[in-house]
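Bench log. Compound arrived from synthesis this morning; before running ITC I wanted a structural hypothesis for how pyridoxal-5'-phosphate sits in the protein. Inputs:
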Amino acid sequence: MIVNSILETIGRTPMLHIPLRGGEVGLYVKLEMFNPTGSMKDRMALSMIDSVPITLNEAAVRIVESSSGNTASALAMISAVRGLEFTTLMDSHASLDKILTVRAFGSNVRVVGSGDGDLATDERDREARRIAVEEGAYWTEQHNNPANAAGYIGLATELLDDLGPTMTHFVSAIGTGGSLCGTARQLRLHIPGVQVIGVEPVGSVIFGGQGGRYRQSGTGTPQGANVGVVIDYDVIDWGRKVSDDKAFSICHYLARRHGLLVGGSTGGAIYEALSVAREAPVGSRIVTLACDSGTKYLDTIFNQDWLSSNDIQIIDIEAQFAELFANAAVPQPLNEESGYGAACALNNA
Ligand SMILES: Cc1ncc(COP(=O)(O)O)c(C=O)c1O
């Protein structure tokens, strides 16, 4: 594929099929790390920049956003292409990799927080608001920006093209809620009965409960931080919590058994997807998003010293879900009968 801008490579990501229960149930992992900055956030960042009011677009625009790293990387890439000035507020303990990525695109990083390892989401947002008001920047405000969720309409269309109405479950991580709710709202238009399950870390408070420290990056909302309007509880059937131990154990399992490097939020979502697969009716197709790549976490999730110093235990996923992996079937390509043709018919309707 020859493109005239790196932005044309956003989307149309591949999907990995992992058969479970001898092929009775299919897990489908949409590989969003194939986007240019290695996460699904390229989709929403482009949507948010495209929605900047036209009058602002004509002036020399300065964008500001608070981010755990992936949104910042995506906005920095797009700002480079569009000639915008971009400043991001990131946590003091954000991975060096993510900070350096933003700087590599020519954007500015301001580090916020105490450095004790806790998320400084609220503080980051306050500083973004201050920069917007006092320094005249445009705050994309991802937690309250409808263009965040709208950025995933294309993702839902790709899922419908690939799997059509045969999807039974959509299980994914939730932070701002843009990817889960934006995708789910669109899927629901075509598959009203699809079960939507949002997954947050234990310690995050989107679905209530006790706040506490967690290490899954980008996902969840810590106690005290604002749960924005992008989270649409009406399109979510179930909210689940997954511990760091379980989420990171999935990352290790996927790397070692499937050659797939994913980040911790994806680990959490896939842990929950496997739990759903245990009880799901024969023929279920469970879709989940690989939000970003494990290459962003080689010095944390995949570093035994870091795991030990954070008291994280890697558990044996194959033993825990033994009944899912018994009689592993050879993945079968989709054909007309299994859904692909039906999806095309649906999209052409
Ligand atoms: C790695 C990762 N996973 C999950 C999420 C949560 O996605 P959303 O904000 O669309 O809910 C984010 C958001 O920053 C992220 O970076």
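What the model suggests: The pocket of pyridoxal-5'-phosphate is lined by residues 39, 41, 68, 70-71, 173-180, 217-219, 263, 265, 291-292 (CB under 6 Å). The chain has two domains: 6-36+147-325, 53-139.
ITC booked for Thursday regardless.
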